[in-house]
Automatic annotation (TrEMBL):
This is HORMA domain-containing protein. InterPro entries: HORMA_dom, HORMA_dom_sf, HORMA_MeioticProgression. Residues 250-278 are annotated as: Disordered. Residues 258-268 have a biased composition (Basic and acidic residues). Residues 269-278 have a biased composition (Acidic residues). Keywords: Chromosome, Meiosis, Nucleus.
Amino acid sequence: RAHTTHAHHQGGKMVMMAQKTKEAEITEQDSLLLTRNLLRIAIYNISYIRGLFPEKYFNDKSVPALEMKIKKLMPMDAESRRLIDWMEKGVYDALQKKYLKTLLFCICEKEEGPMIEEYAFSFSYPNTNGEEVAMNMSRTGSKKNSATFKSNAAEVTPDQMRSSACKMIRTLVSLMRTLDQMPEERTILMKLLYYDDATPEDYEPPFFKGCAENEAVNIWNKNPLKMEVGNVNSKHLVLALKVKSVLDPCDANDANSDDDKMSLGRESDQDDDLSDTE
């Protein structure tokens, strides 16, 4: 069962409110900054909680804008420095230019696979002249659990934005804490997918190289747990996050089980819970 939520302008009332809260307008720069920070927080938290680097590689850091404390990865060796460069230089370049469609942060047994975990961040760049933003999120292979999240871009407030960012990170952290431990031997991969119509044919961000579609496929040896962690609409950018993992302690080794598709918490700031019951 899917819920759809709509937000509409209501005549003159909105105009008055808009004038009153003019100073709280979310600029494109704010939106980019928030999304960049959210990505950092998510990737660092994944690296910390999933034990991808030793504990001493992380420093405590508070993020006043989101009122949360996080673990920040420090460039202690070639590998941690490389992950930071991918994020700060490569990913940010593609995000800033609005070319980036999906960032896949993958952990595999070895470079060619098979997959252990995948964190998929997807980005959309709505037109912000008051047109409606729509983002469709559906769980892989399951038609009945799709949610369409619609909101009028002009109506996102800084508070809503912070609140959904906070919820997304909290949900991600809670989920990761319930997964089984990572194997000692593993490889970290980062893959970027672009909006073809907007991205120049020869574009490659710093630290990334081009790859053919058939090169970037890593197989799953068993059916992973799939979960939607949430989405954040910051007016000029919408970020959604989904997680897949084979390290699911609740898995009864039944590859055909339908119980591995669930939704945690709310998909949007409206009070509509997604439920899996028919």
